[in-house]
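Deliverable D2.4 — example input (structure tokens):
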């Protein structure tokens, strides 16, 4: 580890904390439906769609609208990918995508996962990249924000029958937040050297005189929302390690900022909405604590390198699978940032990390990606853990638990447990299926503990709607295309639906004034308790599986039996 590396990590942390307040204020304006400069355009959309923006929806109505919208998105994207060969803006002449791969990709992008079992530059037309994938990058992020807004209203409102209007929330998030920031980011990336063109591939002559075909396309526009919306799907197969997606150290740093800024800001939106900004700062503090611990462990492991390589005379940190332009510190930081959220973009091969270095991004996803988390999804995931934490605290003080003025009772706890339990059940259940079937065992490139890690990482990534992978797994098979699609769908909507149900129940309750027996949820004790509950629940759930994978890997390295 170096002073330069830690200085970069510190600068990144400070900037995120500084940007959280203005981002949170902006999103609070969207949440509270304040009039915006483009209000006439917003009202025009509602009129064309036949939507009454003043109408409130119950949690059931909100959930139905959300599911119809997302199922329609899956069908539309599937059709675009299958019919690609007959559609315009296809200068490379790519044919339609194979059926199961198209289904996997459609589910992947609609669920904000962006798992890619294909090489973008060699499989997708410009139209598919723009009208298909990029559009869903906007909409999946907006859906996550909408659910977060609905959950916030559950805590903020009293004796209310509605939790907002899904169509209004999605429209405002897209029109006033995601779209304008993405335009600015895209222009910045173009200035830094990211291509933005409708032209075909470029043929270049190498120094040896050979001809090389270089893929280009509308990269900057997709890159902007892939990071801002914590989507992660790359225009190129190499993702953010590709020099056309990530040309410089500055672009790399800007991308990490874009990944974190909205998730951090939403915590303060929550605090402002419930009338106590300290509640938001406390949640953000717990998130940043877990983030910095993860960075320290991952950076330390990668900087220490492999002792077996050291014994062979290869000194220094672990540079295997890393972009030499960025080095160990930036790669470790990026890996933690992208898996602490639902982004999944990568600048290094996580499969080539040390055993402990690879464990950190895997465990981040298994926690539910709530260490900042995805746009919207991170906030509602951590609020579920807040409910669990105050329940435990309530048991300690001997009274009905409450959080930000709302009593947490049996219904909320049952739904919270469902929301917490669904992703682990999907991850561990489908990993077990893959490990006992020939089709599943044919996927990993490695054998033994590391091969198991490749399978476990894939299903952890899918259920957490992340999309990054241990690169050693061959996922483009009927088996993995189907099971990973199922995992992504369950991981997304198996959490969203209980969250909306909790929101509806909380909104109908009256607010309870804080009393002498109330557990304080803004101080250091609360921050520590919340972080501990998150880690303990994740640890108890996944420790046996991690022991068979990366921990066993590390034991073999320490014993000198694994290269």
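Example output (designed residues):
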């Amino acid at each position: 580890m170096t002073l330069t590396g830690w200085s970069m990590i510190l600068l990144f942390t400070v900037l995120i904390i500084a940007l959280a307040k203005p981002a949170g204020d902006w999103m609070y304006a969207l949440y509270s439906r304040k009039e915006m400069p483009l209000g006439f355009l917003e009202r025009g959309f509602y009129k064309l769609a036949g939507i009454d923006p003043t109408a409130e929806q119950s949690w059931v109505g909100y959930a139905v609208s959300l599911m119809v919208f997302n199922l329609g998105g899956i069908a539309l994207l599937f059709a675009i990918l299958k019919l690609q060969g007959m559609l315009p803006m296809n200068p490379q002449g790519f044919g339609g995508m194979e059926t199961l791969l198209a289904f996997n990709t459609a589910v992947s992008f609609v669920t904000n996962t962006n798992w890619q079992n294909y090489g973008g530059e060699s499989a997708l037309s410009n139209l598919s990249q723009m009208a298909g994938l990029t559009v869903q990058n906007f909409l999946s992020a907006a859906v996550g924000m909408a659910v977060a807004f609905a959950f916030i209203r559950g805590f903020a409102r009293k004796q209310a029958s509605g939790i907002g209007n899904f169509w209004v929330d999605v429209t405002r998030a897209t029109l006033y937040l995601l779209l304008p920031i993405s335009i600015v980011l895209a222009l910045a990336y173009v200035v830094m050297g990211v291509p933005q063109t409708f032209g075909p591939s470029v043929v270049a002559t190498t120094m040896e005189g050979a001809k090389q075909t270089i893929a280009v396309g509308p990269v900057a526009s997709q890159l902007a929302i892939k990071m801002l919306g914590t989507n992660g799907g790359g225009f190129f197969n190499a993702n953010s390690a590709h020099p056309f997606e990530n040309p410089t150290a500055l672009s790399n740093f800007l991308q990490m900022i874009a990944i974190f800024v909205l998730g951090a800001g939403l915590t303060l939106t929550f605090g402002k909405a419930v009338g106590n900004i300290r509640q938001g700062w406390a949640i953000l503090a717990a998130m940043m604590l877990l983030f910095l611990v993860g960075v320290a462990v991952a950076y330390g492991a990668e900087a220490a390198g492999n002792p077996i390589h050291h014994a062979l005379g290869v000194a220094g940190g672990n540079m295997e699978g890393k972009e030499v332009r960025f080095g160990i510190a930036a790669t470790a930081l990026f890996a933690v940032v992208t898996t602490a959220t639902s982004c999944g973009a990568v600048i290094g091969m996580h499969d080539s990390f040390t055993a402990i270095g690879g464990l950190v991004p895997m465990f981040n996803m298994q926690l539910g990606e709530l260490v900042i988390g995805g746009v919207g999804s991170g906030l509602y995931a951590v609020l579920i853990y807040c409910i669990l934490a105050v329940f435990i605290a309530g048991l300690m003080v001997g009274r009905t638990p409450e959080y930000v003025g709302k009593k947490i009772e049996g219904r909320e706890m049952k739904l919270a447990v469902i929301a917490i339990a669904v992703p682990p059940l999907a991850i561990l259940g489908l990993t077990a299926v893959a490990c006992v079937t020939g089709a599943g065992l044919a996927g990993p490139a490695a054998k033994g503990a590391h091969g198991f890690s490749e399978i476990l990482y894939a299903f952890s990534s899918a259920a957490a709607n992340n999309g990054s992978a241990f690169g050693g797994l061959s996922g483009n098979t009927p088996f993995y295309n189907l099971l990973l699609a199922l995992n992504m769908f369950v991981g997304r909507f198996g959490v969203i639906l209980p969250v909306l149900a909790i929101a509806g129940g909380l909104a109908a309750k009256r607010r309870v004034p804080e009393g002498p027996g109330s557990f304080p949820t803004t101080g250091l004790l609360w921050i520590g308790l919340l972080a501990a509950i998150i880690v303990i629940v994740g640890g108890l759930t996944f420790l046996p599986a991690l022991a068979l994978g990366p921990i066993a890997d590390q034991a073999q390295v320490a014993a000198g039996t694994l290269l």
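The beta strands are 202-205, 211-214, 402-403, 406-407.
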